[in-house]
Amino acid sequence: MDPKVIEQHGLTIDEYNRIRKILGREPNLVELGMYSVLWSEHCSYKSSRMYLKDFPTKGKRILQGPGENAGVIDIGDGYAIAMKIESHNHPSAVEPFQGAATGVGGIVRDVFTMGARPIAALNSLRFGPLSDPHNRFLFDGVVAGISSYGNCLGLPTVAGEVYFDDCYTGNCLVNAMCVGLVRLSEGEVKSEIPSYIVKAKAEGVGNPVLYVGSSTGRDGIHGATFASVELDENSVEKRSNVQVGDPFTEKLLIEACLELLKTGNVVGMQDMGAAGLTSSLSEMSSKAGTGVEIELSLVPQREEKMTPYEIMLSESQERMVVIMKKGTEDDAFKIFKKWGLNAVVIGKVTDDGFFTVKENGKTVARVPSKSLADDAPLYERPVEPPLYPEISKKAAPGKSCNAMLMELLADTNIASKSWVYEQYDHMVQTNTCVLPGRADAAVLRIKYSHKKIALTTDGNGKYCFADPYTGGMIAVCEAARNLVCTGAEPAAVTDCLNFGNPEKPAVMWQFRECVKGMSLACRELGTPVVSGNVSFYNESNDTAIYPTPVVGMLGLIDNTPHMDMSFKGKDDLIVLLGRNLEEKSSCPKLDIELEKGVQRTCLEAIRSGIVRSAHDVSEGGLAVALSECCIEGGVGARVSFDEKVNNMSLLFGESQSRIILSVKPGDIFALNSLGKKHNVPVSIIGKVGGSALKIRNGKKKLVDIKLGKIISAYRDSMPSIMRG
Amino acid sequence: MKAAVIVFPGSNCDWDCYHTAKTSLKAKAEFVWHEEENLNSYDVVIVPGGFSYGDYLRSGAIARFSPVMNSLVEYVKKDKGLVIGICNGFQILTEAGLLPGALQKNKYLKFLCKNVKIRVENARTPFTNKCKPGQVLEIPIAHFDGNYTADKETIEKLNRNKQVVFRYCSKSGSVSPASNPNGSIENIAGICNEARNVLGMMPHPERVADPILGGEDGEYIFSSMLNSLKK
Fold it and tell me: Do A433 and B214 touch (CB under 8 A)?
């Protein structure tokens, strides 16, 4: 075959020879296309897999770890949570609205494919600075895309994060997470929550293969390969690689699929994600150790004269593959007709281990299923620590503490994100107990049970750039700390690892170190990784983004109070758990033992009912965290320290493992003894009350700002930037 | 008592309304698929929010042609019970001519989800008889097309007949452009028909009808309905 064609498919000559060896002949173009997508970095994890093995993936609550469409966690009371996070970075960089919308669509399908009803969406976004109009265009489009898709589904988008930094100009990050709920047994209560966990397996020779959902078009061909190269100025021409989403069809698809599962006749189900028919069927049959045979003329098509190559590689959205028990196809026809969707038998499960594709009876591709799904080469890529200058810390010589705090509160990385979350329906399904912005994580109730769950996403690229190992640990610890501040026990992780080009040794080193740090923290905190996604090649014009692992975490609240960050009562004591350190590096240090102690102290205190508010100290340090507690509570605070660290570090330093609590004066003794038990410093630093935030260190007054000024700096910043 | 929750393809607050009908209206709740044609056995019909038919063409514009809408018109004409349309349900009721006016895109052209304050303008409807006149309720909105509009005569008629049930207002109850989230004429958030048996409102009372969700002001509306149906 022409080496140019091979190269256009993103395959190396070695990989091509490997295909020839597997087939014992030259592949035809359809087959080459099939291998090219499934062996792409995006689908095969060929550079990352050897490191991902490090993650702890088992635990007493874990029903399904990595390897399925989503991880599944038993949360007790007969319920389980399915969850996963995934990137849609490159499509969003090229076409922000559709890129982000279809990112939501894909991750939602991954979750309901497991038989779970999607109950919450989260997202983690990164863009270049909003001073650049193109970055504003991307940000505006991505938020609108998520809003349009999620809202239409009736899926509340309950939490997330947005950060802006130069390194994401030209390569924005759009990570979407979905959380679903499934019952582990059929209950008495009539409820919208389904009760079947399904796997993506094509079992049972002779069982029919059904195609359900939207028709196939030419959109998104080679999306997976596109996701596995760097972006450059020609990328905009790849706009046709970006799929177009139809949330209405997805909503019908959810209802139809969940209704179909109730029949008990579904053997396996899989979303047609990256590489559409090719990936779904090869993965399903490979997992079951079977083969499949399909007839392309039966595939519903919305464009004329599509070639087998196009049909097999199309990434048209809102399509699923369902394997039914033989003879029960009518169930599917009836239900999908009611919802106005396609459902056709396009083939059957076979016993020969081959993925056979026919067009009008003539074989157009025939390759071993397993070779597509599992036999991609694994690479141990060269690794080398990069030489890079320390990020220079934002020094603010000559600025007063008041001015510095006001500036930070209005900084887009810290300011209120209401401009974003007010565009998302975050209340539909009536489970949202804490509204966005009010707490460090979202809290949802589980109807007809005593359970609540808490959800968050977290990641700090700057820390990981300076020190990928510690940065990876911090990403996990901060997510857990956020959950703990709502009164939830951290239970499981889904992760999205956004990195540069893995063929560069420095990027691969960052990846290895980050994963090492994350693994350690997950082990220490008892939060196994149940699902995830790796996104490499996040570079544009040869510059990589910061290594940006994003941690999505689930926490559990069992019949105990949930907490938010708002200061509540006048004269409540403000208490700091943890230590204020002077951080010398761009990545703060992390003492995992102290971290665990702080988290245990906070959690036990909230559970015992003595805590009135809880807030993690993160970006912008103590001064920002205290401001946020005041803003949400609509009340001031008077805080005084007696610390040796320099005042800027004290106010704005980002030492880890710190939480601000407020308690009634009489409850401080109980809190102290919890601190002692876990070996955690507990310091009373002030009192709630008044109409200003006042902070001093020793005799020196550092901050004194009226609450009204703090609120407007924090709340007005982003809306005024986005109004232009 | 029996409550019907109509389900169109794309309805997505159907389960929320179903739960609320059970817990707040203490009703036997049932889903009614949009192809069904008889609503006569129900005391209450809820047209829930969502994106019926994806809101394609125009919010509510396709749903009004569903078979169930003919029976809903009959139901209202014969005064069989109370009809409440929330959000997309309100849009569908205006498209079907059961309520006057129309809902267009929000003035800032963004979807908007947040808690807002609304003032009870008429406390003598079957939907508000448990409220005090002028009472301020906090109820969330979540819509892209909530900007109520109608011609001058219609607005005059609505005012004359006291059909404006809710207006967006400030915390203290003042109605002004500053407290108008979406550009609605005269801050209109909800209206009823002349016969007082149909209410359409953009805010979602079913989202604040349980203390665990941080608000209970929606209860005023459901307990009013319960109260008037008991009579």
Answer: yes
Range of the domain at B196: 2-230
Work out the percent of chain B whose per-residue pLDDT is above 90. Answer: 93
When the pLDDT of each residue in chain A is averaged and rounded to a whole number, the result is 93
Our CA-based measurement puts residue B173 at a distance from the nearest CA of chain A, in whole angstroms, of: 20
Can you tell me the mean pLDDT for A588-609?
97
Is the confidence at residue A223, as pLDDT, over 70?
Answer: no
Domain that holds residue A661: 565-724
Examine the fold and report which residue of A376, A409, A424 is the final residue of a domain before the chain moves on: A376
Distance CA B195, CA B205 (A): 22
Instruction: Determine, yes or no, domain membership for A153.
Output: no
Cβ–Cβ gap A433/B140 under 8 Å: no
What residues of A are in contact with residue B12 (Cβ under 8 Å)?
A: 152-154, 251, 428
pLDDT of residue A229: 67
CATH code, domain carrying A657: 3.90.650.10
The number of folded domains in chain A is 2
Catalytic site residue from A9, A42, A615, A678: A42
Q: What is the pLDDT of residues B9-29, one digit of tens each?
A: 999 999 999 999 999 999 999
- Total domains, chain B: 1
A97 domain residue, yes or no? no
B19 catalytic per annotation = no
Q: What is the interface pTM, i.e. ipTM, of the complex?
A: 0.96
Q: Is residue A427 part of a domain?
A: no
Q: Using the beta-carbon criterion (under 8 Å), do B111 and A430 form an inter-chain contact?
A: no
Contacts of B61 in chain A (CB under 8 A): none
A212: tokens are 């359900």
Confidence of residue A189 (pLDDT cuts 50, 70, 90): low
Chain B partners within 8 Å of A442 (Cβ): none
A510 has a pLDDT exceeding 90: yes
Residue of B nearest to A421 (CA): B113
For residue B206, indicate whether it is catalytic: yes
Question: At residue A30, does pLDDT exceed 60?
Answer: yes
For the question of residue A42 being annotated catalytic, the response is yes
Chain B residue numbers touching A246 (CB-CB < 8 A): 54
Give the residue with greater pLDDT, B58 vs A147. A147
Please report which confidence band the pLDDT of residue A2 belongs to, taking 50, 70 and 90 as the band edges.
confident
Q: Which positions 625-644 of A are in contact with B (Cβ < 8 Å)? A: none
> Is some CB atom of chain B closer than 8 A to the CB atom of A144?
yes
